[in-house]
């Protein structure tokens, strides 16, 4: 695990759990703990709230399942939760979290207390939102026997963090020295790739130098080391762990600044692919969410956007299911409106409303002969029909009303409809009239 580059930000109110002496902390072990936390949280949200990550966070990383955490979930702002409940709420809210990989373990002051931990930023987003919320978070590290764990987590989503971490310059210098020492140790153990990575990071964050390492890497092919790193990232990518792979490729891109144009294009291609896959998975999850909640038009739109990124038989099938569900709803609503239209057409004073509902489906195969007859009857009293309805169906003129009335009567007759009133009206409609139209 390697030391992170420090990210300096302004902060305000913190609720600490406890404090420890810096001299008792093993910084490298603390870094490994924070890395483990970030990786598990990013993966927990990205992989549909994986139970393995949940168990790791509860059992291995926090001081206890009762560890105090600021709630970042919309609707629970200002509420402090224990970690177990916090993870459950993330799942319930379909929240995505993406931590920034840049941080440093440092000494911080809160009033008269000295705390050890790190300040970092993270992005929060519901899966169907287009833009994330960026917030600042303080993660406190506490000693737990011979090991270390996370003692509390608080963010500035509701209240600013009042915490002073101004000794970070000293922390960076210490980290640089430790990186150089780590790289020298790795060279001795023939871990050339790791040594090159750590030495590049030490030099990137300051003016750290090492004659031993300068001599060692004088004739080392940076591109070959880069390609070894790329292979590891590609393995993560092939396993579908795109968030993790993206972070890996980003770190490689920042570390190896002196590589050939071909390899620079290669890393950019993998970064682009990971971003597309993350976007694709987010859209599919968004579509699944809307489908589950019966919002099939929005679900279909999410699936269509996902398919514009890449083709997937599974997503194509999901998109077709949206059409099926929307058709089912349409037919259900149509049936309900037709039944209501017939009822209103038989109710004095409401025949115009009944006509408006029934005529919507004049070209469907869902109307009965009786319903066509009821519309024809209503056209005999066209004044009862709303003018906007007549205008929408081009029935403002009497000759058009007559023509459509005849059409409806013939359809009712062809469908076998018979009643005393129907037979009388059929006779009257065509008596001494040209069957091709109205006089």
SSE blueprint and pairings:
Elements: H1 27-46, H2 51-61, E1 68-70, E2 80-82, H3 83-92, E3 95-99, E4 106-110, E5 113-126, E6 133-144, E7 147-155, H4 168-188, H5 192-204, H6 211-216, H7 222-238, H8 242-255, H9 261-292, H10 296-309, H11 313-345, H12 351-358, H13 369-379, H14 387-392, H15 398-414, H16 420-430
Helix pairs in contact: 1-2, 4-5, 7-8, 7-9, 8-9, 9-10, 10-11, 11-12, 12-13, 13-15, 15-16
Task: Summarize this entry quickly.
The protein has helices spanning 27-46, 51-61, 83-92, 168-188, 192-204, 211-216, 222-238, 242-255, 261-292, 296-309, 313-345, 351-358, 369-379, 387-392, 398-414, 420-430; strands spanning 68-70, 80-82, 95-99, 106-110, 113-126, 133-144, 147-155.
Q: How does this structure look, described?
A:
The chain is of the alpha+beta class. Helix content is 56%, strand content 12%. It contains 16 helices and seven strands. The chain has helices spanning 27-46, 51-61, 83-92, 168-188, 192-204, 211-216, 222-238, 242-255, 261-292, 296-309, 313-345, 351-358, 369-379, 387-392, 398-414, 420-430, and strands at residues 68-70, 80-82, 95-99, 106-110, 113-126, 133-144, 147-155. Strands 1, 2, 3, 4, 5, 6 and 7 form a seven-stranded mixed beta sheet that branches. β4 (106-110) and β5 (113-126) form a beta hairpin. α7 packs antiparallel against α8, α10 (296-309) runs antiparallel to α11 (313-345) and α11 runs antiparallel to α12.
């Amino acid at each position: 695990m390697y030391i992170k580059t420090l990210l300096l930000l302004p902060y305000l109110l913190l609720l600490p759990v406890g404090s420890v002496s810096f001299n008792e902390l093993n910084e490298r072990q603390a870094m490994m703990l924070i890395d483990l936390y970030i990786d598990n949280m990013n993966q927990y949200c990205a992989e549909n709230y994986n139970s393995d990550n949940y168990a790791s966070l509860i059992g291995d990383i926090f001081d206890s399942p009762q560890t105090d955490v600021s709630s970042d979930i919309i609707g629970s702002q200002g509420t402090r939760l224990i970690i177990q409940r916090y993870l459950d709420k993330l799942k319930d809210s379909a929240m995505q979290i993406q931590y920034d990989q840049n941080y440093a373990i440092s000494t911080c002051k809160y009033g008269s207390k000295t705390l050890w931990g790190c300040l970092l930023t993270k992005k929060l987003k519901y899966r169907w939102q287009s833009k994330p919320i960026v917030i600042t978070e303080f993660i406190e590290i506490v000693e737990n026997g011979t090991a270390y764990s996370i003692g509390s987590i608080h963010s500035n989503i509701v209240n600013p963090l009042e915490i002073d971490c101004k000794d970070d310059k000293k922390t960076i210098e210490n980290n640089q020295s430790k990186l150089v020492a780590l790289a020298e140790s790795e060279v001795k153990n023939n871990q050339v790739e790791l040594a090159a990575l750590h030495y590049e990071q030490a030099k990137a964050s300051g003016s750290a130098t090492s004659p031993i390492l300068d001599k060692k890497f004088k004739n080392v092919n940076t591109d070959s080391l880069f390609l070894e790193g790329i292979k590891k990232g590609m393995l993560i990518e092939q396993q579908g762990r795109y968030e993790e792979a993206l972070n890996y490729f980003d770190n490689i891109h920042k570390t190896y600044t002196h590589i050939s144009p071909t390899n620079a294009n290669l890393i950019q291609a993998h970064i682009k692919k990971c971003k597309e896959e993350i976007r694709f998975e987010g859209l599919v999850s968004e579509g699944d969410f809307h489908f589950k909640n019966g919002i099939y038009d929005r679900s279909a739109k999410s699936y269509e956007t996902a398919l514009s990124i890449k083709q997937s038989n599974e997503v194509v099938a999901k998109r077709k299911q949206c059409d099926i569900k929307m058709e089912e709803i349409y037919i259900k609503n149509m049936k309900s409106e037709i039944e209501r239209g017939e009822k209103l057409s038989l109710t004095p004073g409401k025949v115009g409303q009944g006509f408006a509902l029934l005529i919507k489906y004049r070209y469907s195969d869902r109307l009965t002969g009786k319903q066509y007859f009821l519309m024809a009857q209503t056209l005999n009293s066209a004044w009862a029909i709303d003018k906007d309805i007549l205008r929408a169906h081009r029935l403002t003129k009497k000759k058009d009303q007559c023509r459509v009335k005849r059409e409806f009567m013939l359809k009712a007759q062809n469908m076998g409809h018979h009643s005393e009133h129907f037979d009388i009206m059929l006779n009257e409609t065509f008596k001494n009239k040209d069957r091709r139209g109205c006089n």
